[in-house]
């Protein structure tokens, strides 16, 4: 690669996320943080998501303020009319996505000008390491899921070898994940570990890609020492150079403020249209009286389950704000989806409000919100922690099972409802967080929020780790 540029030129970093909302969120925010430090950024989005972002956001205007910030697109290997719902990414990864995208990435890197000094690749896209090695470009892996998730994925071969997988008893403690011996049950292992056979292609894919991430020049994790210190120490035994520089959304807000920019003026990067009307509805509710209910960007649910959640909410003593994403309902039940949503809306007018997609950060920071019934996706978990909102966790897949265990047993800022979908349980849990144990949870969540927010301020661990990343990339350029 031609590198005969002036040493005064800013480093050029190519950032490449998996084409999923939760991954784009944190990687585009990291890109903005690097752009604030003066870096030239090329953000590589799938064609499909790029089109959606262009339609739904002010992307071009927002990033025009950063000289050299460019978007490029890459194929995700699937035809335009593919529904891309549920776990479509992993299901198509080996056969379609990896081979097609790898070739396309190579072509992009060979033709890009100025040449790229460093790739920040999604830690799940192991092939980026091969391409980087081939072209002589350093690769830093960014694992957007939780460190708990990462460490359990990394330990899967050891768990299998110890005979603790396949699962025999869901409530048995797992002994082979260092650092988690006292609280990790089979039930808390990533959903993929529930496969009856460990030759399952998704199990193999997950642990292969995780082990590959540790071969990168370094690893970026969206967390802080204060939140995940013990697990980070374990991960460091496999990968010495870790940048724990999160929560990235809080870090970005802090750095925008320091530059006298409105922290709310960051790019919303949302793949669905945000319905701002829920903020006006929240404005009319009393402080900490509303439970916010959202299951992220991938979770799907049967109509029966959604109805159980809804009854639980309606029968509880709280008001609620419920997100029902388009394509959220699955299977035969998804017939007449709009009717179901309309019916729920009608019946819940006095108790709640329903939208298809919410401005989640603003919602969680609204004074009317006192709890979050969540699927425990890592971004949602961090957003709730930073806002000091206690959680009720109802994990769906991937790292969410272990995240919800950490929320309830390690950080003690919420309850874990995993594997149960019953209106009585939903009602009971909502009442616990919103009424019976309200002060206790509010206090622990507020303490945690304070600690985590300090880490992104000047002198805090995450702030220093981000500065170190910036310096290290600058050195790659020289
Ligand atoms: C999944 C995993 O669970 C997660 O742990 C992994 O790191 C990425 O893939 P996802 O279902 O997308 O994530 O959940 P989450 O990580 O919580 O991300 C969802 C994002 O969408 C959050 O940043 C949230 O603020 C945003 N969101 C969600 C909205 O903006 N509006 C909504 O109505 C719902």
From TrEMBL:
EC numbers: 2.4.1.-
Domain of life: Eukaryota
Pfam families: UDPGT (PF00201)
Coiled coil: none
Signal sequence, renumbered to the chain: none
Record keywords, A-Z: Glycosyltransferase, Transferase
Family: Belongs to the UDP-glycosyltransferase family.
Identification of the protein by name: Glycosyltransferase
Organism of this sequence: Hibiscus sabdariffa (roselle)
């Amino acid at each position: 690669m031609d590198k005969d540029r002036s040493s005064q030129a800013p480093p050029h970093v190519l950032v490449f996320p998996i084409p999923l909302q939760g991954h784009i969120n944190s990687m585009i925010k990291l890109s903005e943080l690097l752009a604030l430090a003066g870096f030239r950024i090329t953000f590589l989005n799938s064609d499909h998501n790029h089109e959606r972002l262009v339609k739904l956001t002010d992307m071009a205007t927002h990033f025009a303020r950063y000289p050299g910030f460019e978007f490029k697109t890459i194929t995700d290997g699937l035809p335009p009319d593919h529904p891309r719902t549920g776990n479509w990414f992993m299901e198509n990864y080996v056969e379609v996505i990896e081979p097609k995208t790898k070739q396309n990435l190579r072509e992009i890197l060979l033709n890009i000008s100025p040449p790229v000094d460093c790739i920040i690749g999604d830690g799940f896209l192991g092939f980026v390491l091969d391409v980087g090695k081939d072209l002589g470009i350093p690769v830093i892996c960014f694992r957007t899921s939780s460190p708990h998730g990462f460490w359990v994925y990394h330990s899967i071969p050891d768990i299998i070898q110890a005979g603790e997988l396949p699962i025999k008893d869901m409530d048995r403690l797992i002994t082979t994940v260092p650092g988690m011996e006292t609280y990790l049950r089979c039930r808390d292992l990533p959903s993929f570990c529930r496969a009856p056979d460990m030759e399952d292609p998704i199990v193999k894919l997950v642990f292969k890609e995780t082990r590959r991430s540790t071969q990168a020049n370094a690893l970026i994790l969206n967390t802080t020492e204060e939140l995940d210190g013990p697990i980070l120490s374990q991960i460091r035994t496999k990968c010495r150079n870790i940048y724990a520089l999160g929560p990235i959304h809080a870090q970005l807000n802090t750095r925008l403020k320091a530059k006298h920019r409105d922290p709310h003026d960051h790019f919303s990067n949302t793949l669905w249209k945000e319905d701002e009307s829920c903020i006006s509805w929240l404005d009319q509710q009393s402080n900490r009286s509303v439970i916010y209910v959202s299951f992220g960007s991938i979770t799907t649910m049967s109509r029966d389950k959604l109805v159980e959640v809804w009854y639980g909410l309606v029968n509880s003593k709280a008001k609620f704000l419920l997100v029902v994403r388009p394509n959220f309902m699955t299977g035969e039940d998804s017939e007449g989806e709009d009717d179901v949503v309309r019916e729920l809306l009608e019946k819940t007018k006095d108790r709640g409000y329903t939208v298809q997609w919410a401005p989640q950060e603003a919602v969680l920071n609204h004074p009317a919100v006192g709890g979050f019934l969540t699927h425990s996706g890592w971004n949602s978990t961090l957003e709730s922690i930073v806002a000091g909102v206690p959680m009720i966790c109802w994990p769906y897949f991937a790292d969410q099972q272990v995240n919800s265990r950490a929320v309830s047993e390690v950080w003690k800022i919420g309850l874990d409802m995993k594997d149960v979908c019953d209106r009585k349980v939903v009602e009971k849990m909502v009442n616990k967080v919103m009424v019976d144990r309200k002060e206790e949870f509010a206090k622990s969540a507020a303490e945690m929020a304070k600690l985590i927010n300090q880490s992104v301020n000047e002198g805090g661990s995450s702030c220093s780790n981000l500065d170190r990343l910036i310096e290290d990339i600058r050195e790659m350029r020289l």
